[in-house]
């Protein structure tokens, strides 16, 4: 099985005629995903790799015989993202991947709040989406289908990462070690995101294929504290292993500077790398120093749990 | 983007929050005129984008306009934490009965804005929250629903405040919450908001920070405050020559994104690395294996050959940098062959041998066969995904610093 999407999931691309969106459409179709339409205002009647383009989601749904697609990948510019996501939510779409970066925080908060009210889930913004190896991908994650096939093979580990690129690096390492990936989610690097580690844990918990979780994290925010709390409160069957990048930012000479994602501007001691590592380890989540240490540790943890 | 106090006060004033009859000036003689107009004791405050003004001598009290002028002259010359003041604010010395704190910030975990209020104003709110948690009221509010005053009232009441103070502060906090959203702020703080002996409330200081991503739609406000485009986002540090060179290369071409930083780095290992998470991981890996990077960088979004070349040239132009390490986590959008061509081009244009200059090239992923072919042609050491980021970083350290040692 998988989380959030499967082989039958239908989705649309909002902003489908943009340069990156055209590539993304090709990649997803090649990988076997079911894209049922695209939206770009003013471009009704066109096609992108055989996918029909509409002015509005309402037109798309009508064309689709009244059937609302399961998901949407939103790739419109930052100033129009909130409106595009609201259109998808009002149409009843339940799984939304927001690729766009540099969206003002007020808009992100509003989209997430409306999604909560609508019983929908947002992944991102500023993310590459998610992939179920060998089944479907929703977003640019893993790149072209042939590249994605090399890095992502089906397996037992769920991956969640604040960095899109590192999702693939970690998954490739797991694949090379013969463990493979159940579902990998690029959750996005911004200060406010639709789905945090802790919010996705119940999905992985319910997915029989998943035997362990690997997370990639960075300084900034309080998402790890939230995950630690979740682990302590829920008697999860899944061992979690974390990798923390950006430890160098804790050094005095780096204070006040920002690196990487928008979320990694460290403003207080609480969200520094050192502080986060301490908090994760307190909750029984080991934090490895190197990505290449992950597979052996995952194997050991899975063996530990199955023996218990 | 951060605002000076005189700008922050203007922002709260525009939102209908009472402020004192202050004046801003860059000239000591004019400070005297403002003090004379105010007529009475004044406070002269340095206008700098850094904390610790009071301790540094950037805030002084004056009884007469002449004294105000003398203080202004001193403060205008006073550098605080390396910041030269923009000017001084001349403020009537308020007849304060009690100071309160009010602020609005984003709560990333709750994904909502958060109001904070305390009857212990004038000091750091984090300290109050730690030492006197019962004196701090908190409350999230919606970004969808209209704001209503009762939401602010609850927060103030939660801090243990009642009576006139509760009634007077409620509309002020409500306006602060509204301006926080309306103006795309990351932080909107009034500390202190003072209750005067005549029973009125007035903002005696304000601290505002706007999100850079929101600046595009806040142009009217930024313009009204007299802030020119040349001020950019008012970063906390002055960009180095290297950082400016990389920004110029990035701005010259819309394809892909490159960033470079070297504030805080003083080693000899030139890093051409990416993308966001990969750069953080690789910088750690280099440093944890004893390496001293000359810079930090990020490549992403499929940059052109010219962009990769420009970044490599900027890194190689840094003092003490003879060699570069070109490393990324597995790429799916950025093309391996394009980055390879860019960094080789940089070496050739600088009259350097690419095989000698590029200590290691570790970028697996999209278009890697083509990229590796080019690297082979120039005899450059490269590796595929079977070599981890950690190992690649280790090789870079050994090859670059090992030889230097």
UniProtKB/TrEMBL annotation, chain A:
CoA-binding domain mapped to chain residues: 4-103
Gene3D superfamilies: NAD(P)-binding Rossmann-like Domain, Succinyl-CoA synthetase domains
Keyword Glycosyltransferase: no
Name listed for the protein in its UniProt record: CoA-binding protein
InterPro entries in UniProt: CoA-bd, CoA_lig_alpha, NAD(P)-bd_dom_sf, Succ_CoA_lig_flav_dom, Succinyl-CoA_synth-like
Keywords linked to the UniProt accession: Ligase, Nucleotide-binding
The keyword Ligase is assigned to this record: yes
SMART domains found in the cross-reference section: CoA_binding
Top-rank taxon: Bacteria
TM segment ranges: none
A Pfam family of this chain: CoA_binding
From TrEMBL, chain B:
Record-linked Pfam families: ATP-grasp_2 (PF08442)
Keywords noted in UniProt: ATP-binding, Ligase, Nucleotide-binding
ATP-grasp domain boundaries: 9-226
Gene Ontology MF terms in the entry: ligase activity
Name of the protein described by the UniProt record: Acetate--CoA ligase family protein
């Amino acid at each position: 099985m998988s989380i959030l999407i499967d082989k039958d999931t239908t989705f649309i691309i909002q902003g489908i005629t943009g340069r990156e969106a055209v590539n993304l459409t090709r990649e997803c179709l090649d990988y076997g995903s079911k894209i049922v339409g695209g939206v770009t205002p003013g471009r009704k009647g066109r096609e992108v790799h055989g996918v029909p383009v509409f002015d509005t989601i309402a037109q798309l749904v009508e064309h689709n015989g009244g059937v609302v697609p399961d998901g949407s990948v939103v790739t419109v510019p930052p100033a129009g993202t909130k409106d595009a996501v609201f259109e998808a939510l009002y149409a009843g779409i339940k799984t939304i991947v927001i690729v766009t970066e540099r969206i003002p925080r007020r808009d992100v908060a509003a989209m997430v709040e409306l999604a909560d009210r609508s019983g929908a889930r947002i992944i991102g913004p500023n993310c590459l989406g998610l992939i179920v190896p060998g089944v479907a991908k929703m977003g640019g994650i893993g790149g072209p289908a042939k590249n994605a096939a090399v890095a992502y093979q089906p397996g037992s580990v769920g991956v969640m990462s604040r960095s899109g690129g590192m999702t693939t690096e970690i998954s490739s390492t797991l694949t090379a070690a013969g463990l493979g990936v159940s579902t990998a989610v690029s959750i996005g690097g911004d200060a406010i995101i639709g789905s945090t580690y802790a919010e996705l844990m119940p999905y992985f918990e319910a997915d029989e294929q998943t035997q362990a979780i690997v997370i990639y994290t960075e300084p900034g925010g309080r998402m790890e504290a939230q995950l630690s709390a979740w682990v302590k409160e829920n008697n999860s069957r899944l061992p979690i292993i974390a990798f923390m990048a950006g430890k160098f930012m804790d050094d005095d000479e780096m204070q006040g500077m920002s690196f990487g994602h928008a979320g990694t501007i460290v403003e207080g001691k609480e969200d520094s790398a050192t502080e986060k590592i301490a908090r994760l380890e307190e909750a029984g989540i080991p934090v490895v120093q190197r990505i290449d240490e992950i597979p052996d540790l995952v194997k050991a943890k899975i063996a530990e749990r199955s023996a218990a | 983007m951060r605002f000076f106090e005189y700008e922050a006060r203007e922002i709260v004033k525009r939102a209908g929050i009472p402020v004192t009859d202050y004046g801003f000036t860059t000239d000591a003689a004019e400070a005297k005129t403002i003090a004379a107009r105010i007529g009475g004791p004044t406070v002269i405050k340095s206008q700098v984008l850094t904390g610790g003004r009071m301790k540094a001598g950037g805030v002084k009290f004056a009884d007469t306009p002449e004294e105000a002028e003398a203080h202004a002259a001193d403060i205008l010359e006073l550098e605080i934490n390396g910041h030269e003041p923009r000017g001084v604010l001349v403020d009537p010395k308020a007849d304060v009965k009690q100071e309160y704190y009010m602020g609005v910030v984003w709560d990333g975990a709750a994904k909502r804005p958060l109001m904070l209020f305390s009857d212990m104003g004038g000091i750091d709110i984090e300290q109050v929250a730690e030492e006197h948690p019962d004196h701090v009221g908190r409350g999230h509010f919606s970004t969808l629903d209209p704001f209503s005053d009762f939401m602010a009232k609850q927060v103030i009441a939660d801090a243990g405040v009642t009576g006139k103070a509760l009634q007077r502060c409620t509309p002020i906090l409500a306006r602060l919450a509204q301006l926080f959203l309306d103006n795309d702020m990351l932080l909107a703080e009034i500390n202190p908001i003072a209750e005067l002996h005549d029973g009125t409330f007035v903002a005696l200081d304000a601290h505002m920070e706007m999100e850079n991503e929101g600046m595009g739609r806040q142009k009217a406000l930024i313009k009204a405050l007299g802030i020119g485009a040349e001020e950019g986002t008012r970063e906390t540090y002055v960009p180095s020559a290297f950082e400016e060179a990389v920004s110029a290369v990035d701005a010259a071409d819309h394809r892909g994104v490159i960033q470079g930083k070297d504030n805080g780095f003083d080693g000899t290992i030139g890093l051409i690395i990416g993308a966001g998470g990969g750069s953080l991981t690789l910088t750690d890996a280099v440093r944890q294996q004893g390496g001293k990077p000359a810079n930090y960088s990020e490549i992403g979004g499929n940059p052109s050959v010219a962009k990769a070349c420009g970044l490599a040239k900027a890194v190689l132009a840094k003092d003490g940098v003879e060699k570069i390490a070109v490393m990324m986590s597995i790429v799916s959008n950025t093309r391996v062959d394009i980055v390879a061509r860019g960094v080789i081009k940089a070496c050739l244009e600088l009259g350097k041998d690419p095989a000698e200059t590029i200590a290691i090239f570790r970028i697996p992923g999209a278009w890697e066969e083509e990229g590796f072919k080019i690297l082979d042609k120039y005899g450059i050491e490269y590796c595929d995904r079977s070599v981890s980021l950690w190992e690649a970083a280790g090789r870079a350290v050994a090859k670059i610093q090992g030889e230097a040692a």
